[in-house]
Amino acid sequence: MEHQKTYLYAPDSSRPTKRGRTEAPEWELQSSWKMREETCHRLWSEQQKRIQKVLDDANSDTLSDILDFLEKVEHQRQRSKIPCGFILAGSSVTTQTSFFNQLSEKVLASGKNSFASISSGEAPNLKGFLKLLIRRAIAKKDAFDGDDETITTKGRRLLDYDLGVLHEWVKEKEIQEVVVTFQDGEAFDASLLADVLELTHLWSNRIPFVVLIGLATSVENLHRRLPQSIVRVLQGRQFDIVQAEVLLERLYCCSMIDSEPSLCIGPRLGTAILERIRLHTQNPQDFVDELQYAYMTHFFSNGLSVFLSEDLEWGDWAREHVEALRNLPSFRRFAEEKVKYPPSHFSVRQLLDRDDLLFNWARDTVAKSHKTMHLMAEAAKVVHACRSLVGKSNLLLSDLFMEALSGQLHDASHVRELFLTIKRAPSDQLSRLISTLLPLVPDEASTLEQIQEKLDALEAENDSGHPLKSEHDVQNQTLRATVVARRVELSKLKASLSKADAEYTDILLQFHEWLEGYLSDLLIDPEDVLLSEITIYDRKAPHKLAFEPKPRHAIERALFAPHDYLNCDCCPVGTGPDSEGTLSFTQPPTSILYQLHLESGPLINVSDLFSAFRAIMDEEAEEKQILYLFQRALAELKYLGMVKSTRKKTDHIAKVSWRGL
Amino acid sequence: MKRKHTALSSPRTPSKRTPRAPPPKDPTSPSVTSTTSADETSEADVNVDVDSPSKPRSARGGAGRTVEFATPTKTPSRGLVVTGAERSARRRSAARLIEREENESGSGSEGEELAREIWGEGGSEEEEGEEEEEREEGDDVVEKDNEAPAVPPTPSKRPRGRPRKTRARTPTPPRDLPPHELYFLQTRPGASATSNNTLPSTSLLTADETFALSEAYTDPHEKQIAFLHDLHEAAFPQWDWELRNGFNIALFGYGSMRAVLEGYAAHVWEGEGGAKIVVVNAYVPGTALRDVLAALAGALFPRSAKLPLHPNALHTLLLDTLTESPPARPVYLLINSLDAPGLRRGSAQAVLASLAASPHVRVVASLDHPSAALLWDARVRALWRFVAHDATTFVGYEGVEVDARTEVAALLGRGGRGVAGRDGVGFVLKSLPGNARSLFRILVAEQVAGLDDGGEGEEGVEYRVAYHRAREELVCSTEHQFRTLLKEFYDHVMVESRRDAGGAERLVVPFRREELEGLLEDLVEG
Question: Which residues contact B127 (CB under 8 A, 6 or more apart)?
Fold first, then answer.
């Protein structure tokens, strides 16, 4: 079987099947797996719907702009000009792809257009490009069966890269527009781009071409790459699509903050995911993947996650789960805390003794914990809104929320700064603040409305034309320097405040006090939230392994310190990934040879390598046996791309990779 | 006194069993003690110069493995008086350190550094000194015997030291260098002086020997390997879960993952009886994208269906089928060595990824090469939607993924790529008519003759020359016949065609000289 290229698997009856082993391990909390799986599926599909909506809406404005452009072009088509749209898509390739897919759907929806989208990798030369263009524009599947180089149209045999084919088809179907899209304009060879544009120009009197070019940099850059003659015939317009980073922020907010998520991604994992996407992949879709993986891992590995299910009923399965609940750190802390106060002894004892009570308690607590998290998100939004209103918007909402989740937002320096700024806010700013916050905090609306009313009343009396000022505003203070006995004395003088200003200051302080109280109520350390183990998932390791694997490091480690993997008695213990390896004849031969080759320079004498290898191997082993192992190990090193052959010297090989680089 | 060393270009050479013992514990450093022993003691008592002229001589004579710091480099003029014989490296190091302290010369030499190292090592060596002396002296005798023939004809059993260089060098390579520093150390100009030793052409194993040995060989780590395998099998439910959620799985790590994938196939088969599981062994030479597509189509369509031949058309058909009328149950696609040469092209990966993106195709692929992830650009990577798992197995690649014998032969530039060495050529020639044999003999003979003349760079024989020789010997009468005969050789890569500097075509038999001569013998005799 292993020497066949491909085969359809069928169990080999001659080989015994290892039935016992392939079953899922019997785990005490395994009984709830079915329920957890369903819950996970349900919760994720809700989340996915929200995310999909954000993705769909992300570029709706640009899309309608482009469609509008395409429609108008039809009427304003100038002779000898190609209508051309430049789509500034940013660096994220994948955002572009999804955008062009959406665009293609919309363009084709009318039934009178044809759409051909081509990326640089698919079309290396003009012929290939035209073939693809025609094939995609006509979008007929069976029209081209592989090797057939020609297409027959109306009795004429044309080559399959002849735009005449397209012309005939356009005439036949009465197509209004043929939209040709270069997905990644920069990646195309400049001369190919010029050739294609010239051809489209030449045919534009017969075929109604519209060209769209996706750009990552700028239109000027493209301009520079094209010859003047081509630039002259383009009639262009520029469109911007949402940048990956903005989209990422929107996705985070929609999935974590705006809705009431049933599973919250903790600050460490959240920061790691966002950082990876911002710095490395620039692909918002990755966020969706990693979020899904977080859901999957949480429900797969944490038996208690079953409590996130909505319709949970007491059953036999629950016994072990309830026992596990009692062992949660947050529950233990809670119980120990309660025991300190005698009146609550009884309730704690009941929770410890009666399973069904604890079960109900846990369900309620999880719901409460959700509420707490939601309020925390609300608080983060309030902070963000305040910050942007006082003119500071350098921190993203996602950053603020993550800070809140790690319990650091309340004491953060930028929040203290925010409070100081608010203390100095003039009245117009305060009223703007209140009106922005009102929809954000439904629970606190009454307090805010009271303040608003007072403020309105005060402003109605104020006919000075200027907003009212706060007592704490620095502009109200002047510094006076007086020379007393040859010493300069500085003294602060408060400008005289009007009565209205003083009253306003009272109101402002009221607001300030309210905000302070509100935030300190809501911004608690999530670790103190009961059962946060169930509602927050914050493990970085599984994600790091799954999405940022280090295959090279793993292979090098396996070869350099085989003991780390084999854990055998015979081989010496590797002392760490960065220290010297230890050679021993008991190690796998490839490992020995790998360590030997590490020591040498770029050229290795195979004969000497063999002598060194032989010196390490068991004395009793036969020469042939050693030679066999040597050959095998050398071939494996070559297979793994560590060495290659060289012609520089006889019987020498070249070293290709250095460990750890 | 010059010895030929069998060593890599490496600064240190592994010795028996404990090849990487830190330098102070290495047998070489006690030998320093021994060099200043016995016969010298009395002399040293009288002559109090640290570096008496007799010492370096004995140091060099002492088996050529003593560390160089005993050689008088700059000290003779200093004449520091030390009473009593310095019997150990440790004591001498101390003296050297003190001397430096006094002189305040500032420029610390390498010797001083080593001295410091030895001094810091502690006194355990002093006690060992006596025993070591005896042993070392015994060794010295043996080694002096060994040295009698100036250059040992064969590499000695135990490699010792590296070739002595005249220029100053660090006695021990710096340890625990960060990877980049090590790279620069090893690739610095002039660092890669390797010996001119060659492997005798007979030393490589023949196919039969290899086969017999591989049959007889059992891995001493069988138990641990089985444990690793079980570990991966325990993760199968997790794989199921990931695949069900639309992710695909990439396995990486050292060792063949064939068995793990097969185990997973069995697991899937048991879990959902009769699932379609397509297994692709991409490492099999000649595997191409069309094979994978055909296998997938075989799983999706009934046997009688007429399928397009062209891979592009087949790909489109598969994609359409997967979106429009998907199979009732997902198809499993298990790919061994997704990074094998046959599938390495960007377009192949893009096609496979586009299929894998379908929720009805579940892919588990193993990646052997450490840098396999470089195959994908951002777009393809997003399509694959891979979740990676470390599946280090330590199972050898030999026999299935890798044919060690031919790989090594190719690595050393022995034997053609097409046929497996000399045996292979003989095999091919047996199946060809006599004319072809004669032609090949002519080519080999001309090439050997060319080598004898010392024609550097102009390897092989010129096309015209070969043709005329062939006509002379009545092997062929027209150029067409000549070409026809050559064709078979080209197919088996027994002959390669190159252009020389003048643009003339040259025919080259891609073998080394010894093998060519061997071949010629075979041909003339046969």
Answer: none
- Report yes or no on A514 lying in a domain: no
- Any B CB within 8 A of A141 CB: yes
- pLDDT tens-place string over residues B125-183: 444 444 444 444 444 444 444 444 444 445 444 445 555 544 455 556 666 788 888 88
Task: Say whether both A309 and A367 belong to one domain.
Answer: yes
* The residue to which tokens 């088969």 are assigned: B269
**Do residues A212 and A353 both lie within one domain?**
no
A558 and A536 share a domain?
Answer: no
Candidate from A21, A588, A659 with C-beta closest to B233:
A21
Q: Is residue A449 part of a domain?
A: no
Say whether pLDDT at B54 is over 90. no
Q: Is A627 helix (H, G, I), strand (E, B) or coil?
A: helix
Final residue belonging to a domain, choices A199, A224, A242 = A242
**Residues A225, A351: one domain?**
no
C-alpha B133/C-alpha B118 separation (Å) is 18
**A643-645 β-sheet, strand order:** A603-605, A652-655, A643-645
Residues A261 and A387 in one domain: yes
CA atoms within 13 A on the CB side of B348: 17
Cβ B278–A644 below 8 Å, yes or no?
no
Residue A481, amino acid = A
Question: Are residues A290 and A375 located together in one domain of the fold?
Answer: yes
pLDDT higher than threshold 50 for residue A586: yes
The confidence score (pLDDT) of residue A288 equals 93
Domain hosting residue A559, numbered range: 551-655
Residues of A in Cβ contact (< 8 Å) with B412: 606, 645, 651, 653
Tokens of B238: 């997790």
CATH of domain B222-390: 3.40.50.300
The domain that holds A597 is classified in CATH as 1.10.10
Does residue A493 form part of some domain?
Answer: no
Q: Band the pLDDT of B51: cuts 50, 70, 90.
A: very low
Strand, helix or coil for residue B327: coil
Chain B residues 410-449 within an 8 A CB cutoff of chain A: 410-413
> What pLDDT does residue A499 have?
78
Q: What is the mean pLDDT of chain B?
A: 73
Considering only CA atoms, give the Rg of chain A: 35
pLDDT reading at A485 higher than 60: yes
* CA dist., res. A493 & res. A476, Å (int): 8
Pairing of strands A209-215, A177-182: parallel
Q: Residue B498 forms beta bridges with which residues?
A: B506
Q: Is A255 found in the same domain as A210?
A: no
User: Between A5, A97, A631, which is nearest B405 by CB?
Assistant: A631
Dihedral angle, C-alpha B440, B445, B450, B454, nearest 10 °:
130
Strand-pair category, A652-655 with A603-605? antiparallel
DSSP three-state, residue A88? strand
Number of domains in chain A: 3
More confident residue, A145 or A213: A213
Domain ranges for chain B, please list them: 1-186, 222-390, 415-525
Per the structure block, which two tokens stand in for B494?
């027994």
Confidence band for B118, pLDDT divided at 50, 70 and 90:
low
A136 found inside a domain: yes
Residue A272 predicted with pLDDT over 90 = yes
User: How buried is B440 (Cβ within 10 angstroms: 0-12 exposed, 13-18 middle, 19+ buried)?
Assistant: buried
Last residue of a domain, one of A203, A225, A242: A242
Mean pLDDT of A224-238: 90
Of A39-43, B193-197, B419-423, B475-479, minimum mean pLDDT range: B419-423
- What pLDDT is stored for residue A28 in this prediction? 66
Q: Are A535 and A373 in contact (CB under 8 A)?
A: yes
Give me the CATH number covering residue A82.
Answer: 3.40.50.300
- Chain A, 400 to 429: residues with Cβ < 8 Å from chain B are none
Q: Quick one: A225 and A298 in the same domain?
A: no
